[in-house]
TrEMBL record:
<dbReference type="GO" id="GO:0016757">
    <property type="term" value="F:glycosyltransferase activity"/>
</dbReference>
<protein>
    <submittedName>
        <fullName>Glycosyltransferase</fullName>
        <ecNumber>2.4.-.-</ecNumber>
    </submittedName>
</protein>
<keyword id="KW-0328">Glycosyltransferase</keyword>
<dbReference type="Pfam" id="PF13692">
    <property type="entry name" value="Glyco_trans_1_4"/>
</dbReference>
<keyword id="KW-0808">Transferase</keyword>
């Protein structure tokens, strides 16, 4: 009697510089791929978040990726990506700047024709005129068409790609509503308070790097305290500036560092204000979480904070001046927050919207791929 082999499970490859990005930025996307019958290979540098990626049907592939442009590092990473691209993939998702550039340059044509680049924020802002920003803008314009699909999470980034000459357009250009935030989780009442201090605190959540600028948050709270506001600051994140924050805690008993936690909803629910001083963002998840929780936001002006806080839902500053930041913090603490409008804004980036948009993206890719 004839036997029929089971159909081959489809294979998806997802690549970022570090495992943390894959674990935190797109978990809902990975779940959608599993539901659609894909086995997922996660490719990234190993870190403390790697283990969380491993679920039944998933594979982890370690790559030597660093956030560095040293020639040796770039060449080794390019060679590793080229080798990875020679495998048989049904869908590839890339989502960090260095990876995205190298993959579009060195990956095989077959793999590129199955690739979506999910842009969590181009490394330039609208109107930014510095030499580095101009170079990155030209590079992104030249490479935009070298994948099957390009998905943006920021309206400003979407406009940039749409403005390119038609010859440079990707075959599919899709707008995603962030990375899918479980709004109801952040809006839940009676979440237990994390930490032992009962004091009022400001919150910073994000990678501890120069772009996120956590020391701006430290300076802002320090100025608030100088004015007599008994506000503490909890910094949640990892990165190369962690030692600077740790050093600052030794002389600032009101400053607390939490390197890794799954309890962000609890921290957010009890915070008096979220400080978001990033220079560049796509659509920052942490601000969506604050809006869902009804926590006031003070943010630096960038495409993401402008998009999310439009209409007066938070304070947006073009400066890192501690006095200006302290003024903004005092203003949001003294003014009642419009929690209904904040929740409505957050819901536009919630799980249901994301699942629908991401599922539609995968469907379009599968349809286009069948014609290639």
């Amino acid at each position: 009697m004839a036997t029929h082999a089971a159909p081959r499970r489809r294979r998806a490859l997802t690549i970022a510089t570090v495992s943390r990005s894959l674990a935190l930025q797109s978990p809902e996307g990975w779940q959608i791929l599993r539901e659609r019958g894909y086995n997922i290979t996660f490719a990234a540098a190993r870190d403390a978040w790697t283990a969380s990626l491993l679920t039944p049907g998933s594979v982890y592939h370690e790559i030597r990726a660093e956030r560095s442009l040293r020639p040796r590092v770039v060449l080794e990473l390019a060679a590793g990506l080229r080798a990875l691209s020679r495998q048989e993939w049904d869908l590839v998702q890339i989502q960090s700047p260095i990876i995205s550039v190298l993959w579009r340059l060195v990956a095989t044509g077959r793999s590129r024709r199955r690739t979506v680049y999910v842009v969590h924020g181009f490394h330039f802002q609208s109107g930014e005129r510095g030499l580095r920003a101009q170079a990155v803008r030209l590079l992104e314009a030249a490479l935009a068409h070298r994948t099957l699909a390009l998905a943006t999470v920021s309206a400003a980034d979407h406009r940039f790609v749409r403005s390119l000459p038609r010859l440079l357009h990707p075959k599919l250009l899709v707008a995603l509503p962030g990375a899918g935030v479980p709004v109801d989780t952040y809006a839940a009442l009676n979440l237990p308070r994390e930490g032992s201090s009962p004091s009022a605190y400001a919150l910073f959540v994000g990678d501890l790097n120069a772009n996120k600028d956590p020391m701006c948050a430290v300076a802002a709270v320090e100025e608030c305290r100088r004015r007599g506001r008994p506000l503490e600051l909890t910094v949640i994140g990892e990165g190369h500036l962690a030692d600077d924050i740790r050093t600052a805690t030794r002389t600032r008993p009101w400053l607390h560092l939490v390197d890794r936690t799954r309890a962000i909803p609890s921290w957010m629910a009890h915070a008096q204000v979220l400080l978001a001083p990033s220079y560049r963002e796509g659509v920052p998840r942490v601000i969506i979480e604050a809006l869902a929780a009804g926590t006031p936001v003070v943010a630096r002006r960038n495409r993401g904070s402008v998009e999310l806080l439009a209409g007066g839902l938070g304070e947006i500053l073009p400066t890192d001046d501690p006095q200006a930041w302290a003024d903004a913090v005092e203003h949001v603490l003294d003014a009642p927050a419009d929690t209904v409008a904040m929740r409505e804004r957050a819901e536009a980036y919630g799980l249901d919207r994301f699942r629908s948009a991401y599922s539609d993206l995968v469907t379009q890719m599968e349809s286009k791929r069948s014609l290639l």
